[in-house]
Structures are given as structure tokens and as C-alpha cells.
Design brief:
The complex is a heterodimer of chains A (200) and B (294).
Chain A (H helix, E strand, L loop, with lengths): L10 H8 L11 H10 L10 H38 L26 H18 L4 H27 L4 H22 L12
Chain B lengths: L1 H17 L1 E8 L5 E6 L2 E8 L3 E8 L5 E7 L2 E7 L11 E8 L3 E7 L1 E6 L5 E6 L3 E5 L4 E6 L3 E5 L6 E6 L3 E4 L4 E8 L2 E5 L2 E10 L2 E5 L2 E13 L2 E4 L6 E9 L2 E3 L6 E2 L7 E7 L4 E9 L2 E4 L2
Parallel strand pairs in B: 2-6, 2-8, 3-7, 3-9, 8-10, 9-11, 10-12, 11-13, 12-14, 13-15, 14-16, 15-17, 16-18, 17-19, 18-20, 19-21, 20-26, 21-27, 22-26, 23-27
Antiparallel strand pairs in B: 1-4, 4-7, 5-6, 22-25, 24-25
Classes of the chains: A mainly alpha (200), B mainly beta (294).
Chain lengths: 200, 294
């Protein structure tokens, strides 16, 4: 609640008006300030040691690679989902623009990209070379095992085409492709009679 | 008749004459490495308490040669075949003694491997032959194509990594950590304590029994065609996540699985037992998954 004198002026305004407009320092402070500044050494910013810098850069690079891989994986996975869904029309919704899938449709290994297919083809070549040196009975067994894996992958991929959002089938399909690569690798690296020393 | 007997005796005598027994020995590092390769026949390796490697070879004929050399802590035993060895029909049996704590690397083709009392790390690879070995406190990595694998452990700390193509795995009292793969073949695993297991099979049944599990149990199992059976101790702390695309889930712990689809054959089961500290993840395409605590 403000109180006004009869003159109509605020007492606070009166108090402010009574203050001097300019205050002069008691003495000149600047020489002392300069002296203090000159006493204080100028220190350049500490440079990070090369080791720390290298580690930091390495960590940043690893982080970047991880982040990029994750984003790539995520985007690839996301981009595959609509394709799969698109290929299998939902029963509830009319989808006249989508043609029925051909009988040969499947989520084959070619979906894993050209790099994978190239590596697989190279491994397959080495596998066949090694396989030809195995005893006939073992060769038959290995061929049968590889056929089993490929048959399993084929069956899963066909089933996955009917149930495209099934994470279990997706996991098992990837796992089966890994098993195939592992078999190709293991047999390629096997010791065979031909690879053992025959220098007599 | 008399002529036939005479010819047979002559052939036997000729074979005996051409067969050769070779024996070699050398001082060896007690913690050294022994590398053995043999194409056909049988290899028996035994760990002993002497600091020497001894080999006795039964060469089937004089076309083969046994190479035995030591370089530093490494001893190499190799059966060298004549030229064109891949079509060679002979076989050699090797009986080898090595210092008990040696590590062992062995590759064979058409040869059985039997290893007893060797406590160092082992890397075993075989084509068309059975592998029999023991697991102690060091790791074993083995790969076999067309043959059975039998590992008997001593409840040690060693990790077992085994891959078998067309052949079963029979593992008893092995360590608490394992990574097992079969393409075609059954797995039978018995462990006194289980901590980590990664299991993959394409065609084959899996049966794993653990008398005890660690608090941080981790099991990751996948099967394409075959039943997966797990027997756990009566009490454990673990979270289970099990799903099958075409198969039943039998659970002795109590909770019942649910159908993943109204019309499909798939089942899923997620539940927590005890504190749920461990993780058990099992996925199967065609086959029953059974988990039990008795």
C-alpha cells in the first residue's frame, strides 16, 4: 500500500532525487589493478597429450562406427518390413494393387546383399575343392548335411513369406544361414589326405 | 587248396615284412605344445608325469615315414605319406605319451582320436573318425565331420567349443561353459554346474542335464528339426523365454505356454523362476521343447 504525501510525490522518488548523481572514487584504482594483472602470469591453454587425443579420436571413431552400424541395421530392417508386408496382403484389407506372389517367392539368401552372396560363393568354391578330396562316404554325408541346412533355410524362408512379421522365423532363418556358412568354412579348412605332407 | 593256403601265407609274410614299428622319444617342455597329424589309422595320446614325448608308430608299410621333431617347446609328430597321398590306402596307428600339462593340436583323416590325461588346451580336428577326450581346466576346441565326439570332463573350468557335422556329441561332467553346434547329430550333455551354454542344431535332439546352475546362468539354444530337452535343478533363479514355430512346450515349472497364433501350431512361454537373475532363451522350429526341474 503506497502512502503519498499531500504534495503528491512518492517518498521513494524523493529519496532517489536526494542521491548524488556522480560518485568520485576516493583514489585512482587503475594503477593497482594494472600491477595485479602484470603479476599474474599469462598461461596458454593446456594442450591435450597426443595419447589422450589419439584415444579420444579412436573412441569417437568406434562410437561412430557403432552408431552407423546400428542406424544401417535399423533402417535396413525397417525397410525390409514393408517389403515383406507388401508381398503378403493382409486378409482384412483389400489390396488390389498387390499381385499374388509367385510360387518361387522366398526370402532367400540373396536378400542379405551382394557382399554376402559373393563371400558365400567364394566359400562354396573352396568347400567343393575340399569336398572332392574327402573319402566318398564322408563326401556323401557332408553333401547330405549341407542339403539339409539349405532345405531348412528354404522351408523357413517360404514359411516366413507367409508369416513375415514372425521374429522367431527371422531369427531361425539367420541362424540357419550362419550354420550354412559355418559348415562351408569348416569343411574348407579341414585337413585332408591331400593336404597332409606327401613328400616321400 | 594247398596252393591257395601257400599264397595266403606268403601274402601275410610279405605284409608283415613291409610293416614297420617305429619308436621315438625326446625331452619336452612340461607345458609345451604337441602337434600330431595322421591320415588313416588310430591315434592314442596319454598324458604322463615325465617331461618327454614318446611315440610308438605302427606304419602299415615302408612307403610311409614318421616325422618326429622338437623345436623349442613344440614337438611335432607327423605321418608323411608317399606322393599322391590322397589316394593312398595305408594306415598308421600312433601311441603317444606327452607331458600331462601339454597343449595338444591334432588333425586326422579317417582316424580315431583317443586322448587321456592331457590337461592343457586341445585343438582337435577330425574327418571320419571318433574323437574321445577329457576336459580339465583348459579349453578344448574340436571340429568333427562324420564321426562321434565324446568328452568326459572333470568338472573343471575349461570351456568346450564343439562343432560336429554328421555326428553326435556326448559330453559328461564338462565345465560350466560350452558352445555346441551340430548339423546332423544328437547332443547329450551332463554337467554338474552350468553357467553359459550356446547350442545350435539343425537336425538332432538335444538333452542337457545340469545338477546346479550359477546365478548368472545364460542359455541360448536354437533347433531347427529336433527336440530340445533341458533338466535343471529343483530351484533356480532365471527368466525363461521359449518359443516354437511348430512344436509343443512342456514345462515342469508350472506356467503354461500360450499359442502364438489362433490357427498356427506355434507356442510361446515366458516366465520368471525365483529372482529371475539368469536368462534361458530357447527357440525351435520343428520340435518339442521341454524344461524340467526334476
Amino acid at each position: 500500500m503506497n502512502e503519498f504525501r499531500k504534495g503528491g510525490r512518492d517518498p521513494l522518488d524523493e529519496a532517489l532525487a536526494s542521491l548524488p548523481e556522480d560518485v568520485s572514487p576516493q583514489r585512482d584504482l587503475w594503477p593497482q589493478i594494472r600491477a595485479e594483472i602484470e603479476k599474474t602470469p599469462i598461461v596458454a591453454p593446456v594442450r591435450e597429450s597426443p595419447v589422450q587425443s589419439t584415444w579420444f579420436r579412436l573412441a569417437a571413431a568406434v562410437l561412430l562406427v557403432l552408431a552407423t552400424s546400428f542406424v544401417t541395421y535399423y533402417v535396413t530392417r525397417q525397410s525390409m518390413q514393408p517389403q515383406i508386408v507388401q508381398n503378403t496382403p493382409a486378409t482384412e484389407l483389400p489390396a488390389p494393387q498387390v499381385n499374388p506372389q509367385p510360387a518361387s517367392f522366398s526370402l532367400g539368401p540373396e536378400r542379405l546383399g551382394a557382399g554376402y552372396m559373393k563371400t558365400r560363393a567364394e566359400l562354396d568354391k573352396r568347400f567343393k575343392e575340399r569336398l572332392s578330396t574327402l573319402p566318398p562316404a564322408d563326401r556323401t554325408k557332408v553333401e547330405r548335411n549341407l542339403a539339409d541346412i539349405r532345405h531348412a533355410a528354404d522351408q523357413i524362408s517360404k514359411t516366413l513369406a507367409q508369416h513375415p512379421s514372425d521374429p522367431l522365423l527371422q531369427d531361425l532363418l539367420m541362424s540357419t544361414y550362419q550354420s550354412e556358412l559355418q559348415l562351408l568354412t569348416n569343411v574348407s579348412e579341414l585337413p585332408t589326405a591331400g593336404s597332409m605332407r606327401t613328400d616321400l | 587248396m594247398r596252393v591257395a593256403v601257400t599264397v595266403a601265407v606268403a601274402l601275410l609274410l610279405a605284409q608283415a615284412a613291409s610293416a614297420e614299428d617305429v619308436e621315438k622319444r625326446a625331452q619336452a617342455d612340461p607345458n609345451g605344445e604337441v602337434v600330431i597329424s595322421n591320415v588313416a589309422g588310430e591315434v592314442q595320446v596319454t598324458g604322463w608325469d615325465r617331461n618327454e614325448v614318446h611315440v610308438s608308430a605302427d606304419l602299415s608299410d615302408d612307403e610311409q615315414r614318421l616325422e618326429f621333431k622338437t623345436s623349442g617347446a613344440r614337438t611335432t609328430i607327423e605321418v608323411v605319406l608317399p606322393h599322391g597321398g590322397h589316394s593312398y590306402q595305408g594306415s598308421t596307428d600312433l601311441v603317444v605319451q606327452v607331458p600331462r600339462n601339454s597343449s595338444l593340436t591334432m588333425t586326422t583323416v579317417s582316424a580315431d582320436q583317443t586322448i587321456k590325461g592331457v590337461r592343457g588346451m586341445q585343438r582337435l580336428q577330425a574327418v571320419s573318425g571318433t574323437i574321445d577326450t577329457e576336459l580339465w581346466n583348459d579349453d578344448i576346441e574340436l571340429k568333427n565331420v562324420s564321426g562321434e565326439v565324446n568328452v568326459r570332463g572333470h568338472s573343471g573350468k575349461g570351456t568346450l567349443r564343439a562343432t560336429s557335422v554328421s555326428g553326435g556329441l556326448r559330453l559328461e561332467d564338462i565345465g560350466s561353459e560350452m558352445d555346441l553346434n551340430t548339423v546332423t547329430g544328437d547332443m547329450t550333455v551332463r554337467v554338474s554346474e552350468l553357467s553359459r551354454a550356446r547350442i545350435r542344431t539343425t537336425n538332432g535332439n538335444v538333452e542337457l542335464r545340469a545338477s546346479k546352475v550359477t546365478d548368472d546362468l545364460r542359455i541360448d539354444a536354437e533347433g531347427i528339426n529336433g527336440d530340445l530337452r533341458f533338466r535343471f535343478p529343483r530351484t533356480l533363479d532365471a527368466e525363461f523365454d521359449i518359443s516354437t514355430f511348430n512344436g509343443e512346450i512342456d514345462n515342469c515349472f508350472g506356467p503354461k505356454p500360450h499359442k502364438t497364433s489362433e490357427y498356427g501350431p506355434g507356442n510361446a512361454l515366458r516366465f520368471k523362476e525365483g529372482n529371475g537373475d539368469g536368462r534361458v532363451r530357447i527357440k525351435a522350429l520343428n520340435g518339442t521343447v521341454e524344461i524340467c526341474n526334476r
